């Protein structure tokens, strides 16, 4: 099982990560939020973010409102760019770990999904 979580103000995140690491769950952590992963499809952003700064950056790329819906022209083809940025930003690329702000271990899930697609 894969879990995708934000760091945000998650008070029990470290406990959850330890429990998942000891179990069979795999956790992908984005710090501060999953939206940083979306931003990296457009641009390399290495400055620490808040929820507000991420929304502001994403609005520059066509996101609206709370930025929870992808714009129609989202650059899905830039996934490898986002993988490279996420890999370079993360001090730890291990699953079930919290990285610095900004970071994301989404490249693991992308690789797993791409591997599944190869087997179809």
Strand fraction equals: 5-15%
How many strand units? 3
Uncertain ranges: none
Please give the share of residues in helix.
40-55%
Radius of gyration: 14 Å
The average pLDDT is: 89
Spatially, the strands of the biggest sheet line up as 1-2-3
Structural class: alpha+beta
Q: Could you say which overall geometry the principal axes of the C-alpha atoms support?
A: globular
Count of spatially separate domains: 1
Tally of DSSP helical segments: 5
Task: Describe what this molecule looks like in 3D.
By secondary structure, the chain is of the alpha+beta class. The chain has one domain (2-118). Helices cover 40% and strands 11% of the residues. It is built from five helices and three strands. A three-stranded mixed sheet has the order 1-2-3, with helices on both faces. Strand 1 (2-6), helix 1 (13-22) and strand 2 form a beta-alpha-beta unit. It is globular, with a radius of gyration of 14 Å. The mean pLDDT is 89.
Can you lay out the helices and strands and say which pair or pack?
Elements: E1 2-6, H1 13-22, E2 26-31, H2 35-39, H3 51-59, H4 79-89, E3 103-104, H5 106-118
Parallel strand pairs: 1-2
Antiparallel strand pairs: 2-3
What's this, in brief?
It is globular, with a radius of gyration of 14 Å. It has helices spanning 13-22, 35-39, 51-59, 79-89, 106-118; strands at residues 2-6, 26-31, 103-104. The chain is built from five helices and three strands.
Key terms:
120 residues, alpha+beta, 3-stranded mixed β-sheet, 5 helices
């Amino acid at each position: 099982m894969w879990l995708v979580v934000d760091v945000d103000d998650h008070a029990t995140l470290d406990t959850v990560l330890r429990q998942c690491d000891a179990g069979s769950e795999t956790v992908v952590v984005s710090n501060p939020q999953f939206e940083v992963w979306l931003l990296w499809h457009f641009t390399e952003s290495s400055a620490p973010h808040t929820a507000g700064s991420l929304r502001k950056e994403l609005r520059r790329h066509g996101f609206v409102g709370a930025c929870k819906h992808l714009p129609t022209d989202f650059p899905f083809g830039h996934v490898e760019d986002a993988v490279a940025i996420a890999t370079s930003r993360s001090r730890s690329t291990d699953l079930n770990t919290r990285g610095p702000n900004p970071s994301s271990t989404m490249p693991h899930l992308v690789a797993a999904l791409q591997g599944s697609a190869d087997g179809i």
